[in-house]
């Protein structure tokens, strides 16, 4: 049985995560404890549950209630995920949703869940959890577009990247758009944050001390192609991707062991960071050895 609560209005504070709090406010909602995030669609919600995230509540539009609950129950059954019997599930009708400002709120992609965040490990503790044999990790430096973050995580999950480190000035992988674009793989690929100031001052050094060679995606006089044989021979490799506009910081590039590039047709010098990550992960990830 599900704990269904049929709403007659949208004023209750329990609905704040869905109706009145933005992403940043959700992030800080429970300080000093980790905050909340919104997972969208039964597939994303189930993957979050499977990864151990605890739901605070769900919000489902009444006309889609049967479909969304069936999808959730099916996903949880086949993946042996703990059920939602005690979780409040708020059910709202279409008329109430249309009362919201901005022309009406539409749960276009199905159920929403307000989920509790978990505390992320420090960089050193995170690196200690990586595989001992041939680890491949990605560093996202100042990647600010949630859509790109989600796409990069989806490629990382598919192409053998063992973990992702995100600088704190990047978009949050748990933003609703990021987790949706990632199809829930942000709950599948191990990841953590590193403070942007720490990364700028000593991030590459910390990776070196942990035994990693670093490969910065950038164009320089000594740049090598991503299929260069010497990259495959590196035991521990960290692939560093930069922001959508400026790219990587100069000190990140100069401190790295390699600068790497994707060979391009004449007249084009770069790809969108999400597209570039997919090609780099295809060539440098562990899909070939796992």
TrEMBL record:
Matching Gene3D superfamilies? 3.30.1330.30, 3.40.1280.10
Segments passing through the bilayer: none
- Any GO MF annotation of the entry: RNA binding
Name all tRNA/rRNA methyltransferase SpoU type domain ranges: 137-281
Look up keyword Methyltransferase and say if it applies. yes
Which InterPro entries does the entry mention?
Alpha/beta_knot_MTases, Ribosomal_eL30-like_sf, rRNA_MeTrfase_TrmH, SpoU_MeTrfase, tRNA_m1G_MTases_N
* EC numbers, comma separated: 2.1.1.-
Source species, domain of life: Bacteria
What top-level class of enzyme does the UniProt entry assign? transferase
UniProt keyword Manganese present: no
Task: Tell me the GO BP annotations in alphabetical order.
Answer: methylation; RNA processing
Any idea which UniProt keywords this protein has? Answer: Methyltransferase, Transferase
Q: Which GO terms describe its cellular component?
A: cytosol
Query: What is the protein's given name?
Result: Putative bacteriochlorophyll 4-vinyl reductase
